[in-house]
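Contributing: when you submit paired examples, paste them exactly as shown. First protein:
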Amino acid sequence: MSTTAKIDSNEFRTKYGPWALIVGASHGLGEAFPRQLAALGMNCILVARSAEKLQALQGQLESEFGIEVLSLTQDLSLPGATERMVEAVGSREIGLLVYNAGSPPYAKHFLKGDMADWSGLVVKNAQTLMETCFHFGGEMVERGRGGVVLVGSHAAFGGTKKLSVYTATKAFGANLGESLWAEWSDKGVDVINLLIANTDTPTLRAHMAEHGLEVTPEMNIPIPEHIVRVGLAQLPNGPSFVFPDDEHPQEGKPTRGQHRRDYVIESTRITATFVGDD
């Protein structure tokens, strides 16, 4: 399947509808996901901190695509965020969960940062992520269909200077996603980690500006709309898609994502020897 293959909207809604929950839906990838899902006919629930941005996006989606949209203003770094999402969703059936939150508050040496900010990043990228997958993923498994997209980062592959807590929490998300894929792939629920490098978003531009840097055409940084198209097309092909490395695979050479899949399958086989395969 081409990484940018056209998605059949009827098949997509049947598998992942009728509602998509997009967590972190204000700008960049968080805006591109609901726009493309709305174009497929999916109703959307938008979650982010900025009420103004959410209301603007909600109005645009409802007007342009004629879908139902619900917005929830919520800081995901605060305890109880998942409970508020569950309450807001109510009886609506969430067939697709997109967890797109998790940018670092800043790039800074660990000891020069603020512990409250680091703790909030851990809550957002680990605790709230885990609780959200547990609740809505559990409902999908019960129904026997659904999908989960965890937007991650190449930072998950190892530590780096000035991004200590960010890399640590992104590793948590990547391992959680691959483990859930191993547990849910035979239960009708697709899970994929969309592990991306730098993306031309307002957040990236703001971080760079703080250090006297700017995005230039020569950097050839991918745009959110393209990454989202690839991610949604690859949803059935978990557990991980490493962008842009896996977008143009070389014939006869496994991609980084395929290496991740092989590792999860083999690791699961070995683990079953000690804990069973029930």
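Second protein:
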Amino acid sequence: MIQALLLDPSFLPVTIVFAVLILFSFWKNLARYVPHLAVVYLAFLLFTATSYRDTPAVPQEEQKNIVDDSMESQAMAQPMAVKDDNAVQSAEENSQASSGLEVKQYVPPQQPQDDKPKAISVQRLVVCENIDLKQRKPVRIRDVFIDTTSRIYCFAGLRNPERSEDIIHVWKFKGEPYAKVHMNVSVSNYFRCWSYITPREDAVGQWSIAVIDDESNVLKEADFTIVPFNEP
């Protein structure tokens, strides 16, 4: 429960506002309102803690099973952010430790490398509220979000054993394309990447996110819903 509160992006600002209101109440001799504020704040803490869904590591995310994506064998580049319509990409890039951190820009392929079937596959695809950048894991996995959510992330874990591949995160709203994020996946036993959208006021409805290869094959797809926030 404590982990849920600390990872929730709204915890710190709400706590600061609560403290300011408490101080203001005593300053203006309005201490009778302090219990009401405390009840609202405790309700926020309870809702945040109980709505958190723990995200245990899948077998591919255990350190002993990560080979090409491990901290021991390679340097981890800083997340790369690239705007594409209404989405932003952030992905791990492989580079040699001796040459420093290098971020590779996406370059559309000119022609297929060969006719060999692709070996890339999506091992995990979830939609969540945040990404733990230190552990590179999804936080607060959901399939229903309120329209006041600041960002909605798609987290994908891919197995790509043979060669570098290009993929696309395709976000759809009510069956219509909303945004596309291009990424390059290096050869890896478990390559993690993510993208996100920022919902607008008219974003209420059914959504989907699909991971597609450069031949338009859908590797995996996930659905989620955005619902309106009902103020009391």
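If you have annotations for the second protein, write them as plain sentences, like these:
The domain at 59-227 is CATH 2.60.40.1930 (Immunoglobulin-like).
The chain has two domains: 2-50, 59-227.
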